[in-house]
Amino acid sequence: MDKTKFILDEKDMPTRWYNILPDLPEPLPPVLHPGTGKPVTPDDMAPLFPMDIVMQEFSPERYIDIPEEVQAIYRIWRPTVLHRAYRLEKALDTPAKIFYKYEGTSPAGSHKPNTAVAQAYYNKKAGVKRLATETGAGQWGSALALGCMYFGLECKVYMVKVSYNQKPYRRIMMETWGAKCVASPSTDTKAGREILSKDPNSPGSLGIAISEAVEDAVTTKNTKYSIGSVANHVLLHQTVIGQETKKQMEMAGFYPDIIVGCIGGGSNFAGMFLPFVKDKIERKKPNLRIICVEPQSCPSLTKGIYAYDFGDTVGMTPLFKMFTLGHTFMPPPVHAGGLRYHGMAPIICHLYRLGLVEAQAVPQVATFEAGVTFARTEGFVSAPETNHAIRVTIDEALKCKQSGESKVILLAHSGHGYFDMAAYESYLSNKLQDYDYPETEVKKALASLPKVPGA
Ligand SMILES: *Cc1c(COP(=O)(O)O)cnc(C)c1O
Fold it and tell me: What percent of the chain has pLDDT over 70?
């Protein structure tokens, strides 16, 4: 009998994170200081992050040991399971072999705790007492609340006001783990008060919430800031996913022809594919295809331009070289809140430009159709973000049906959709809509890209 799932022993969990930086065929463009146009130094980052994290952001080491304290927490739900999607294959009547690595079994229900736990640990080790962060729909906020709970840190989450009011369950989850969560803009910061004085009914935005969290971190004693995606160190922490999967694919006796994942800031999918892209860079697997899937309404890689831009909407962060739709771009309100980001992880952008990964944009309704097919075959109800990756997995499997090829497709399954029932309801009652690519809005936003001093 062929196996349905591939389970690693706790002792086979990775003990090191894989850092792609030394293996890149060309070095990553530096992050720039917006005032001087000079590369950002570790000292510039020190007010926001503990030094261990700062050093990981720039590290030339191929492998970085995972501290035993972090491994002990990972072991509560890791290694996660790699599944073979027999029922999905059968329903599609495809000769393709579909595998999925499921990150929905973490306590917060996604991959995000892989970095939240590590960040909480390094802050604790540096004597930090409290972390501040922002969250949109609440996935990152709940993951950091969990990480802080494990290491006895206080946690303050600035949650975008519309989500705070519309989606109370993630907030209650954060509070259950002991975090404080306020609607942003809040009266707790100068940035929040200024916005409220101009517009008391401001619905908030991720950019405003970032401004509040950063201000909190730099003005409050013993407090630092924490980020849930995009940054090199976040992608690094997520590589436990891909390293486990490599071993599990070996157990299954296959190597993927195609790896598919969704990208918001890029952390879950990079965590999956970075250990595999190494094989492609080393020309051991030159034909491996890695497909990054993004929403048609927020298509950073497929429609953005490769330029220096701010990481946030307000323009407080350093400048990152990335495919961007412009930091002032406000994506349409698709349900996949985790994919509504104007930019993309610099590491993914660099690999995309080098032709080592590809990208596809998909419309919202088709992603839910795929998610429901997945739920009605494999059973798992997936996050709206993950549904983007499921869409392309199914499309590739159907291409195999056409061609008769029995390709091995590996899906990075980033999390469950249990807090997204309203979105499923909207799909099931035919109320869900697609949003066209907002071309004029993107043009406007791209016109306000920052000028890089000296460039
Ligand atoms: C946050 C989130 C994403 C998008 O973030 P990445 O950094 O691109 O991984 C995708 N899926 C789920 C379930 C998420 O919570």
Answer: 100
Residue ranges of the alpha helices (H) in 153-266? 161-166, 168-176, 190-198, 206-219, 232-252
**CB of 109 closer than 6 angstroms to any ligand 1 atom:** no
Nearest protein CA to atom 1 of ligand 1, as residue: 338
Beta bridge partners of 83: 5, 100
- Beta-strand ranges (E) seen in 85-126 are 97-102
pLDDT at 455: 61
What confidence tier does 454 reach under pLDDT thresholds 50, 70, 90?
Answer: low
Phi, psi (degrees; rounded to nearest 5) at 442: -65, -45
Which residues have a Cβ under 8 Å from the Cβ of 379 and sit 6 or more positions away?
none
Q: What is the mean pLDDT of the chain?
A: 95
Q: Are the CB atoms for 384 and 264 separated by under 8 Å? A: no
Phi, psi of 167 (to 5 degrees): -125, 75
* Distance of CA 385 from the midpoint of ligand 1 (Å): 6
pLDDT mean over 186-204: 93
Q: What is the pLDDT at residue 248?
A: 98
Domains of the chain: 5-10+71-109+233-446 (3.40.50.1100), 19-66+112-232 (3.40.50.1100)
pLDDT of residue 166: 85
The minimum-distance atom of ligand 1 relative to the CA of 143 is: 15
Choose the residue to mutate in 119, 294, 300, 414 for probing ligand 1, maximizing ligand atoms within 8 Å of C-beta. 414
- Look at strands 97-102 and 408-413 and give their pairing: parallel
Q: Is ligand 1 within 6 A of the CB of residue 385?
A: yes
Q: Model's pTM, two decimal places?
A: 0.97
- For 411, the token pair is 């899906």
For residue 263, the CA-to-ligand 1 centroid distance in Å is 7
* 230-244, 278-292, 310-324, 369-383: range with lowest mean pLDDT: 310-324
Q: Does 233 have pLDDT greater than 80?
A: yes
Task: Please tell me the distance between residue 303's alpha carbon and the centre of ligand 1 in angstroms.
Answer: 20
Which H/E stretch holds residue 412? strand 408-413
d(CA 116, CA 95): 39
- Which percentage of the chain shows pLDDT scores above 90? 88
User: What residues does 322 pair with on adjacent strands?
Assistant: 307
- Residue identifier of the C-alpha nearest atom 14 of ligand 1: 338
* Ligand 1 contact, 80 CB (< 6 A): no
Query: Is 80 exceeded by the pLDDT of residue 1?
Result: no
